[in-house]
What does this fold into?
Amino acid sequence: MSESLILASSSIFRRQILDRAGLLFTAHAADLPEDEMMLDWQKKGTTAEHVARELSVAKAMKISAKFPGAHVIGCDQMMLCQDRWFAKPKSRAEAAEHLQFLSGKTHRLISGIAVVRNGKVLWDHVDIANMTMRPLNQNTIDNYLDEMGDKVLQSVGCYQIEGLGIQLFDKIEGDFFGIVGLPLLPLLQFLRAQKVIA
It folds into this structure.
């Protein structure tokens, strides 16, 4: 690697994805008032795809300002079901309500990713997955939440498909890496084209 690469995220899952792909990078959390920003854009009639992109860019921009010359990767996810926008649940009760709402329905999981260097957006991408959750009864939801604990508060959909969360679904259409929050293949293509990686 000829130049530094930074992931603007505190997500363990995103760090694992880049690490397992063999990338050398550091990670720095880009703490932003995401829920407030999302609501503001929603009130303005902005699409969820645009919000996922803009939040990804905002995270990368924040970290880019602290690390001149570095290629900074920002990521964010939006989730919609029947025109309802979801944020990460803040409690077990809110996670249960989300799962009850999603039960038996198809929702869209939108993953935005951007690379910024010296305050300039070099590249961005939006990945969309359609996720059909199987019908869940209250007992199934309670058992799932008991098993997952606070992990359900770490993702917008209350699930991690790379683990127990896969059992909540009947059908998934979309890229695995996009679903887990970091569309890896398009990112690798961009980084190779820029000679950031070999």
